[in-house]
Amino acid sequence: MRKKLFAMLGLSCIIAVLLVACGSDSNGPNPVHMNAGNFVQNSITIKKGESITLINDNLFVAHTIANGTWENSTTHTAREASAPEINDVKIDGNSSATVGPFREGRAAPRGAAAGRKLCGKLSVSVYPR
Fold first, then answer.
1. What is the Cα–Cα distance from 126 to 9, expressed in whole angstroms?
2. Which residues contact 36 (CB under 8 A, 6 or more apart)?
3. Residue 96: how many other CB atoms lie within 10 Å
């Protein structure tokens, strides 16, 4: 009887630890979630001067974020006038990073999963306050 009780208690503790460890902190401004291979949303609209928080929901895949585009599995570095300089911002698994502030206009940071070719494009539309 004691063995079953201790086994159930141990299993409950392990489940509780896993649930807490797998949660991600989305308390930053204008959250944008990423999974293992892409941005979960492909666009966001924010106010001039605001930042965005990129949240990596995948525990095992790190992402590198930079200004530019993907074309035929090749990165092309470019920065729109309204975009802040985003220069290889590393976002480990189950973590986040804030980028910005953005000026008025449109910006498109590209993302790359470490060791992969495509992550995706996020279009950021910025409007005046």
1. 51
2. 58, 60, 61, 113
3. 20
pTM of the predicted model, to two decimals? 0.70
What are the structure tokens assigned to 65, written together? 């974020």
Domains of the chain: 27-127 (2.60.40.420)
Q: What is the pLDDT of residues 67-126, one digit of tens each?
A: 887 777 777 788 877 788 888 899 999 999 999 998 876 665 655 444 333 357 788 888
- In whole angstroms, what is the distance from residue 91 CA to residue 54 CA? 8
The alpha carbon of 9 is separated from its chain's Cα centroid by a whole number of angstroms, namely 35
Please tell me the distance from the alpha carbon of residue 71 to that of residue 58, in angstroms, as a whole number. 24
